[in-house]
Specification:
There is one protein chain. It contains 28 helices and 50 strands. With 993 residues, it is α+β, with helices and mostly antiparallel strands. The strands form eleven sheets. Strands 5-4-7-2-1-13-16-15 form an eight-stranded mixed beta sheet, with no helix packed on it. Strands 32-31-33-35-34-36-37 form a seven-stranded mixed beta sheet.
């Protein structure tokens, strides 16, 4: 289309009401525009008539001004000025401005949270929504006329549109009698469809390729208009239109909504977002927002539209929870602000407050006043404030008028203060007085805010619901019942705008994108490829780091974006199952941070990754996303607990006596398992006797049996093999396996098992990792290991078992001095311990197919399957059973629990000395109480040279020698003693054990 339409129109507003501007308090702005579509140009005439008595500032911005006259007389303005100052004096004044805009092609467009705010003029159409005419700050009455080519339809704010056909063009006149802050103009080759709703018209302006969507949008629009007329009052205007836009917009203007073509085509928009935009016709487009005191409109519309649609589907509580998750994800203390300071959405953080928090404030207000009074207040607010800017104060006045309540405290608390409710529930107790149970608890706030606390008490007979008034920093509450209390739940349905507890939070995309520190990890070997992502990463607030440069502090303190093929993924989660698709994002909890997350993405090219990362910002509430053929095919949210929960009296674990079994019967039941885990307390001989019996009975049934033992470490596997084969004797075995250096418990506890294994030539697997590595990790973390030490560490480790972590934390904190240690490092060392044993077990079974293995280890490595069993199963899928000894009865703690009677064992005699070893010399550093060595005459600092003639060069030499003695035997001890002035002397002592 090459014609240039440069003639400015003079349109007659045939049906416009006669207005006396002199009597009006707002300016009259008459706009006439035409276009050169091929050159992307706009030609405009702006005639502004203003009331007298003040100076008016007219913003022209970057418009090219060609002429300005005042009352028909040339009006001088500076070249390239961005505003014109005009004072009409004592009478109304008229300023006429002729202007042009060039290059309206859209490059360099501004975006507001992904929504276009720029202008476009071209052969495909016109979209004018931002600074396209001279503007006055505040309300004005507009009369717009536009000359457009034949075949085009135009839409702007209007109760009536008059079209006059010209030669080769069409003149559109827009009749709108209400004052507004600004207007917009949209022009396109639309297929227009109309429907009648009562006395008003509903239209769709869709591109021809989308005209089949018109019927659905018309039906939905009428449904929403009816819905909100019943809730608030009559529709504010005489017509309403749904308009498709070339640009990706999502706006609501008086009398129409403007939706980008990609948005319009989404199947859910007509049932969701359309209603939001229609509701804005009442709030925002006819009751205006006084932006100097905060934008209340977006949050109110969110509450009455987006939230309400989910509430109707029974998903209201989930929607409210997602508001809280978004707030915690995107808001830091530096980004937080009060509702009175919210103007518009510019990013996810401003949306979390301006939309989410505001919606929750209206939810709290409805809870305070009740549904009926809340709705009456909305109608009062709408009726009294049409077509004028209103503030939070006006909202407060409407709700106070209807409710006859003083709500000053409520609006000051929620509108003028920033933040969310931040409280703890403490000292939950149950006590009985006769047949009555009294459940008490304390609530402790960081600030003394006033709110209604929803409480649910679950009992054996049903549920008791209470609403308790909280308004102090600390308060105590009590609930009385004659039923048996089972569980106390606080704010189960998320009626409060509050901080979430750790167990309520699930890892979701918003937590990944909202983290205060965000790092994208470049996998080893692909660093160069991923460097091409830098622009996209910066767009989402991510810095980047090579995988080898990542420190523990980075992992703990940041949200991480990690391609699936990075080694870090295996180090944290072992084998993450990525869903099938072109691109997948799986968000998992950071094992080192309850609020941190790790986003694992498909290892695609940088270009493909960047394309999809730009899309995932719109899926903030989901934990897993999958895209295929450029479409989202999967979006899921992980489950979490709802509400703050306290178990008061759950079912007590018990054993039905007729079901008691014996160890022999247990062995019969587990004889077909690939792996049998038998737990122990290391110093309980009765536990080791049970292990011996299990091994003995299983061997009778299956000669392809092996024994995995925590007590031996992998580097010493050859010493174990040599002993079992008979290549070395027991003394050499104990020396070469460094048993006494690496395991503190008496060898006699395990001797029966190893003697049986040697006799039957049953393979024994040294399951453990080197002690030095576990110790170093527990003190300094995995990142402290050298490349050489990392060779002993399994490639894949699963740190994501949060229940296991919780149990270990309780164990860790029960020990003195835990405050001075790093729990994350302790947790890493425990998982490393478990994973190493699971991998070593799996390695044996892979090399020796068909073997059944009995694993002997501490009960902590087996309870609930969290230590070795589930990890080995992850590696090989082998069937297993867990037998625990002397364990408390707890659900899922094991498959079988045995209760052997305590047994004495032939403990190796001791000399009663404390020893130190240095440079192959063993010396006495002290004595235990009633030491037989001290009684025999040995002294501190004596160097022990030999026992019964056997040379002593290490502490383990003494332990091995004593292993072959018994109580009542005598031992000849040779020492070297340093004497003052007389030098060293060798001495011999005979000690009766």
């Amino acid at each position: 289309m090459s014609r240039i339409y440069s003639v400015l129109l003079t349109l007659l507003f045939l049906s416009a009401p006669v207005m006396s501007v002199a009597e009006d308090s707002v300016p009259l702005h008459v706009l006439k525009v035409s276009f050169d579509l091929e050159q992307h140009k706009l030609f405009g005439e702006s005639v502004i008539t203003v009331p007298p008595g003040k100076t008016w500032n007219i913003v022209v911005g970057r418009l090219t001004i060609t002429s300005v006259t005042a009352h028909g007389v040339p009006f001088e303005v500076q070249k390239n000025t961005e505003s014109i100052t005009f004072n009409p004096g004592q009478n109304q004044g008229t300023l006429k401005i002729l202007y042009e805009i060039d290059s309206l092609t859209g490059p360099g467009r501004m975006k507001e949270d992904g929504i276009e705010t720029a202008n476009l003029v071209g052969p495909e159409g016109i979209a004018l929504i931002n600074a396209w005419y001279p503007s006055i700050n505040g309300l004005a009455r507009f009369r717009l006329s536009a000359l457009v080519p034949q075949g085009f339809e135009a839409i702007s704010e209007a109760d009536e549109i008059i079209v006059q056909e010209r030669e080769g063009s069409r003149e559109f006149s827009f009749i709108f009698g209400h004052p507004v802050e600004g207007i917009n103009l949209i022009v396109g080759q639309y297929a227009v469809k109309k429907a009648q709703h009562k006395t008003m018209e509903v239209h769709t302006y869709f591109f021809p390729e989308d005209k089949e969507l018109a019927e659905k949008y018309l039906d939905q629009a009428k449904k929403y208009i009816t819905m909100y007329e019943e809730l608030i009052g009559p529709f504010p205007f005489k017509r309403f239109s749904v308009v498709e836009n070339i640009l990706p917009t999502g706006y609501s203007m008086p009398t129409f909504t403007l939706l980008g073509r990609d948005v319009l085509r989404l199947p859910f928009i007509a049932e969701t977002s359309l209603g939001h935009e229609i509701l804005h016709q009442w709030f925002g487009n006819s009751v205006y927002v006084d932006r100097t005191s905060g934008n209340w409109s977006e949050g109110l519309t969110t509450y009455l539209a987006d939230y309400q649609y989910e509430e109707i589907k029974g998903m209201g509580a989930e929607y409210r929870k997602q508001i809280l998750v978004a707030y915690e994800s995107y808001i830091t203390p530096e980004k937080d602000f009060a509702l009175k300071d919210f103007i518009s959405r510019t990013d996810k953080a401003t949306a979390a407050v301006g939309y989410g928090k505001t919606a929750m404030v209206f939810h709290a207000l409805k809870g305070l006043l009740g549904q009926e009074m809340f709705q009456r207040s909305l109608r009062e607010f709408y009726e009294k404030n049409r077509f004028r800017p209103v503030s939070w104060t006006d909202l407060q006045k409407a709700f106070e008028t209807v409710s006859a309540k003083n709500l000053d405290w409520f609006f000051k608390q929620w509108v003028e203060r920033k933040g969310a409710l931040d409280f703890e529930i403490k000292d939950v107790m149950v006590r009985y007085e006769g047949s009555k149970a009294r459940i008490s608890f304390d609530i402790v706030q960081k600030s003394a805010l006033r709110f209604q606390l929803p409480v649910l008490l679950k009992t054996d007979k049903g549920a008791i619901r209470k609403i308790l008034d909280a308004e102090k920093e600390a308060a105590s509450f009590e609930i009385e019942t004659e039923d048996i209390p089972h569980e106390l739940v606080i704010d189960e349905h998320y009626d409060l705008f509050r901080k979430l507890m750790d167990n309520e939070v699930v890892p979701v995309v918003s937590m990944l994108l909202g983290g205060e520190s965000r790092i994208c990890v470049f996998p080893k070997g692909r660093e160069k490829e991923y460097e091409a992502l830098s622009d996209v990463l910066k767009e989402h607030g991510f810095t980047s780091k090579k995988e080898e440069d990542l420190k523990y502090e980075d992992i703990k303190g940041s949200s991480l974006l990690v391609p699936y093929d990075a080694e870090l993924v295996k180090r944290l989660y072992a084998n993450v199952q990525m869903p099938e698709g072109d691109f997948a994002l799986v968000v998992k909890q950071n094992p080192y941070s309850t609020k941190g997350v790790v986003g694992i993405i498909s290892p695609l090219s940088a270009a493909e990754t960047g394309k999809y990362l730009r899309r995932v910002t719109h899926y903030g509430k989901y934990s897993t996303l999958v895209f295929k053929d450029n479409r989202n095919i999967t979006k899921t949210i992980n489950e979490s607990e709802n509400g703050i929960r306290f178990l008061l009296a759950g079912d007590i674990a018990g054993v039905e006596m007729p079901l008691l079994t014996t160890a022999t019967e247990v062995v019969n039941k587990i004889s077909n398992k690939d792996i049998v885990y038998v737990g122990e307390l290391h110093d309980r001989f009765d536990h080791h006797r049970i292990q011996y019996q299990v091994i003995r009975e299983l061997y009778k049934k299956n000669k392809k049996l092996a024994i995995g033992m925590e007590m031996f470490q992998k580097p010493f596997q050859k010493a174990v093999d040599d002993y079992i084969s008979g290549a070395i004797d027991e003394k050499a075995f104990l020396k070469k396996s460094e048993y006494f250096k690496r395991w503190v418990f008496d060898y006699n506890l395990y001797r029966e098992i190893l003697l049986f294994a040697q006799e039957k030539k049953i393979p024994v697997i040294a399951l453990n990792i080197r002690k030095e590595i576990v110790t170093k990790v527990s003190k300094e973390g995995l990142q402290s290991l050298s490349l050489e030490e990392m060779k002993d560490v399994p490639e894949d480790m699963d740190l994501s078992d949060m229940e296991y972590q919780k149990r270990l934390r309780g164990h860790f904190e029960s020990h003195a001095g835990s405050q001075a240690r790093n729990f994350d490092f302790f947790y890493q060392s425990q998982v490393l311990w478990d994973e190493s044993m699971a991998h070593n077990l799996n390695d044996f079974m892979t090399r020796n197919p068909g073997y059944q293995v009995v694993v002997l280890a501490g009960g902590g490595h087996m309870a609930f399957g969290s230590g070795i069993p589930k990890r080995a199963h992850r590696l090989n899928g082998k069937d297993y059973a867990v037998i625990m000894n002397s364990e408390d009865v707890d659900k899922d703690v094991a498959d079988y629990i045995l209760y052997p009677l305590p047994l004495p064992f032939p403990e190796a005699p001791k000399l009663g000395v404390m020893l130190k070893e240095e440079n192959r010399v063993v010396s006495i550093s002290g004595f235990s109480p009633d030491s037989i060595a001290e009684k025999a005459g040995l002294l501190t600092d004596d160097l022990i040279l030999s026992l019964d003639g056997e040379k002593i060069e290490a502490i383990e030499d003494i332990k091995i020698h004593l292993l072959y003695t018994k109580k009542g035997d005598t031992v000849n001890v040779k020492v070297r003693r340093k004497r003052f002035l007389f030098g060293e002397k060798e001495m011999e002592f005979t000690i009766t054990l």
